[in-house]
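Fold this complex.
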Amino acid sequence: MEQALSDIKVLDLTHHIAGPYCTKLLADYGADVLKIEWPDGGDPARKMGPFLGDEPHPDKSGLFLHLNTSKRGITLNLKTEAGKKIFRELVKGVDILVENFSPRVMPSLWLTYEELEKINPKLVMTSISNFGQSGPYRDFKASELIIYGMGGAMNETGMFDRYPLKKAGSVIQYQVGTMSAFATMIAFFASQAQGSGQHVDMSMFESQMGTIDRRMSHLITYKYNNETSYRPDPELEPPGFPYGIYACKDGFFQLTGGFVFWDRICRMMDMPELLDDPGFSTQEGQRDPENLERFSIIWYPWIAERTKLEIITAGQAAGVLCGPINDPGDLVNDPHWKARGFWEEIEHPVAGKLTYPGAPFKMDETPWRASRPAPRLGEHNAEVYSELGYSGEDLERLREQGVI
Amino acid sequence: MAKLPLEGIRVVDITVIYAGPFATMNLADWGAEVIRVESIKHFQVLTRGGTAHPNQQIVSDPIRTGGIATYCGRDVSFRPWNRWTLFNAHARNKLSCTMDLTQPNGKEMFKRLIATSDVFLESNAPHVKENLGLTYDVLKEINPKLIMLSMPGFGDSGPYKYYRALGVHQEGFIGHTFLRGYPDSDPSTTSTVYHADEAAGATAALAVLMALHYRNRTGKGQHIDMAQAEATMPHLGEAIMDYTMNNRVQESMANRMPGAAPCGCYRCSGEDRWVNITVTSDEEWQGLCRTMGDPEWAKDEKFADSFSREHNQDELDRHIGEWTMQHNHYDLMYMLQKEGVPAGPIIFEDDAYTDPHLKERGFFQELTHEECGTHIYPGLSFKISRVPNSIRRPPVRLGEHNEYVYKELLGVSDEEYRQLEEEGHIGMDFLPEVR
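Structure:
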C-alpha cells in the first residue's frame, strides 16, 4: 500500500532525541530517510540506555532502536573535504534536510543554509536547536530539564513545599521532534508553492513557550490579571472531592469528581441515597471541611476493598472521568492497545525481535509502517555510495581516509 | 507578504478543551481557514469556561487559583465565554460560527459546510459523532475528498473505545504519571501535567499535513483514527523499550537523568525561585567548581569523577543548593553558561515577558480583542525563512463569523438567517437556560 510521504526524500543529519523523532515520524509514514552518522561511534543515542540485556552495544540501545526505525544509515565525516563533497552530492537529490547541531556547527563546516540552497534551490532545511539560530542565548547549553524549566510549566509541577519537578524521561524532546516534523511539512508546502527553498528555525525554548497549554494560558492570565502561577497548597485551595490520585486495593487510580460530577460519583459507588446531600452536591458544601470528613468515612473504605480495574470499570460506566495509574508493564499488557494492534514486532539483525511502540495515528489509505529496523552504523554505505557512482575501491579508500 | 502555506485549506473544527483546539491552532497559524462550529445551546465544560454563566462572586474569590482556568479581569459580567484564558490561548487566527448539530436542519447545514471544506477535526468520545450521525462514512458521501481526523482519548476501536478521559487521565493509563513523581513519595502526591494534550495536538496537526500531501498527489481524502494516548506513548519510548526488552519496570527519576550529576533543580534567592543545572562531563564539573569559587568540599574524593558524583548525588545536591541560595536565578544562568555549564532558571510569567532572548527574537505579539482589550500574547512556535508570519486575528469570539459562514459560504438568505436565529442556531450568547 502506498504511504502518505512515499515521494519525499529526507537527508537526516540528526542525533540524540528531538531530531531523530522528527525524521522517524516522516520515515514511518513513507519518506525515504537517509541518516548520516559520524564514522567514529555514530549517533550518541547508541551509547544511551536502556540496553538489551543491560549490555552496552551500539545496536542494542532501546532508545536508538526506537527512534530510528524505517531509516537507512550511512557514515560520513563532514570535517573532511571528501566528506563535504559527498554531502553536497547527497543534498542535491533530496527535498528535506533536518539537523539538530548547536547553531555554530553547520557554519563551522561551511554548510550553512545559504551555501546549501545554491546546490539545491528548493531545499527545505530544518534546524532544531535549544534556543534557535539567533538571540543572546543562541550558544547556551541545555538539557531536557533546563528546557522544561525555561519554556515549560515546571514552576507549577510538584508540591507547593517541595522542589519543582520535570516531566518523565525525555518527553519534551519528543514533543519538539513532533513540532519539528509539523514545521518541516509546512515549509515543504511553502517550498512547493513558492518554488523556493525554506529554512526552518526551531527553538526548543520557544516551542515550549508557544505550544503547551498551561504555559500559554498562564502567560495570557498574567497579562489579563497580573496573576502568576505557582504550585498550589491543597489545604488552602481544596479542589473538591473526590479528586486526584488515590490508593486502592492493588495500586493507584485517578479521577475527576467534585460537585459538578457528584451524580456520576453516586452512580459509580451505587449510593443513590447520597445524591441530594447538599454537603456533597453543591460547591458551597464541598468547600466545608466537615463535609470532606463525612465523605472520607464513606470513600476510603469503598476504594480500599476494590481493585483499580473494578473502580475504573464502575467509574467509566457511570461517566466519571477516571483511569488507573499504570506502570510501563501495565501499559504494554493492557488489552485495549493490544486489541487496537498498537504494538509492533520488529526484527533487527543484532537486537533480534522486539516489541516497539507503533503508529501514533492510523491513516485509512496510507498506513504507518516500520519498513525496516534502525540501521547499524554504516549499514547502507555500499548501497548509497554506489548509487552516487562510487566503486568498491573508492569506498575502501574513503574508509582508510576516515571519510566513511 | 508571501502566501501562507495552508491558504485555501478550509478546516471545520468541533474539537473541545485543548488537544484538538491546539491541533487546529497550528493549522490556522500557517494559513488554513479554521472554522470552529460551536453551539449556543450546549456548553462543553472547560472549553469556553467552567460553566456557561459563571457566578461573579466565585470568580472573584481570591482564594481560587486563577491561571489555566480564569477570566480576563476576573470579570464575567458580559460574555464570559469570550474571556476564558484557556480558550484564548489557542483560539487565535480562527473563525467561529454557531450551529445546533442535534437538530435536523443543523445537521443539514453542517453537511453543506463539510461539502465546501477540506478537513474536519473532532475530539469527542466516539459516541458523540455516532449519535449525531456525523461519521466519516456519512460525510465522505457528501465530500469524497474530505480528510477527517478523529482524536478521542482511546481511538475508534478496542475495549475502551467509549471511555471518557482528559489528557490527565490518559497520562495515568500510559504510565507517564507513574514515571514522574517524587521518588520518595507514592503516586498520590503527583501533580497534574498536560503532556498528552500537547503531544496529541501537535501529532494531529502533522497527520493532517500528511493526508493533505497525499491528497495533493492523488485527489483522495481519508479518515485518520488517532487515539490521543497512542500519539503520546512513543514519547515514553525508553521506559517502554526497557520493559519489552528487559522486563524491567522503570521508576521515577524526578529531575535526574542517567549519566549526569549533578542534575537537579536548586533553590535560589527570592521567593520560590529556582535554577536547573545539568552536568554531563568532567569539563562541565570543573566549570561548575570554578563558578562556585572552587570550594573545599568539591575537592573531596566523593566527587572526583562522574561515577562518584552520581553515587553521592544527594550530598552533592545539598552543597550546590547552599551555594545557589545566595544568587538570583537568572544570574546563575549567566555565570554558569559563561563557564560552559548547562544551566537555566525556572521561568515564571514575569520572567518570560522580560526575557532578553525572547524579546530579541520577537516572540511576543500585541493583539487587540474586542472584549478583553489590548494585551501581549505568546507568539508562533517556529520561524520559516521565506514565510514571514505573525498572528493575524485575536482569539475568536463565540459566533463572531456567523454572517460570513451562513451567508457567504452556505448561501443562506437574510430571511432564513433570521429564522435560524430564532431556532437557536445563530447567536453570540449561550442561551440563558444553558448551564
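The two ends of chain B are 44 Å apart (CA to CA).
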